[in-house]
């Protein structure tokens, strides 16, 4: 027999899984996730000491701006799914720009993940409700 606390923990885990599944299906989750991972990769390969970033000027800050912008472009549509087109396109543009301004876009990995995530976000559509069991075709009624 399971104890009462184990049963409550299991029912809580089941409820959390159901919530996450509903959340994931009503938002461009996978596109946002890939865009955030791509932005993190670009940002990780752009990290330098503050003195180096200040002394190099815009070239040093550009990696932070593109990586941070990609992360924000991936997170905002999770909160506001109707903005997926706008932020998906912004994320793709930032990913392509990171190729030039930030160590080959995180050595091509961050750029590729950003383009993948942004395009998945633009192509995402809300899940349609399931249809009831298909009805059998109606017989044709003859008129007298």
Q: What would you say this structure looks like, in words?
A:
The chain contains 7 helices and no strands. With 144 residues, the protein is mostly helical. It is 74% helix and 0% strand.
Topology summary:
Elements: H1 4-25, H2 29-46, H3 50-56, H4 58-79, H5 84-101, H6 103-107, H7 109-123
Helix pairs in contact: 2-4, 2-5, 2-7, 3-4, 4-5, 4-7, 5-7
Order of helices and strands: HHHHHHH
**Class by helix and strand content?**
mainly alpha
Shape: flat
Taking all residues together, what is the mean pLDDT?
85
First-residue to last-residue Cα separation:
68 Å
For this structure, the quaternary state is: single chain
The helical percent reads over 70%
Radius of gyration: 23 Å
Strand count: 0
Largest sheet: none
Low-confidence stretches: none
Report the total helices: 7
Strand content: under 5%
What can be said about this structure in brief?
The protein has 144 residues and is mainly alpha-helical. Helices cover 74% and strands 0% of the residues. The termini are far apart.
Defining traits:
single chain, 144 residues, mainly alpha, 7 helices, flat
């Amino acid at each position: 027999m399971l104890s009462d606390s184990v049963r409550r923990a299991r029912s809580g885990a089941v409820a959390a899984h159901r919530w996450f599944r509903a959340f994931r299906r009503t938002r461009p989750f996978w596109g946002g996730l890939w865009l955030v991972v791509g932005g993190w990769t670009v940002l990780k390969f752009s990290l330098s000491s503050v003195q180096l970033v200040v002394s190099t000027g815009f070239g040093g800050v550009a990696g932070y701006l593109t990586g941070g912008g990609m992360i924000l472009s991936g997170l905002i549509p999770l909160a506001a799914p109707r903005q997926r087109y706008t932020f998906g396109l912004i994320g793709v543009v930032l990913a392509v720009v990171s190729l030039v301004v930030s160590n080959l876009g995180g050595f091509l990995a961050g750029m590729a993940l950003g383009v993948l995530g942004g395009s998945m976000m633009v192509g995402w559509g809300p899940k349609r409700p399931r249809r009831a069991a298909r009805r059998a075709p109606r017989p044709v009624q003859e008129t007298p």
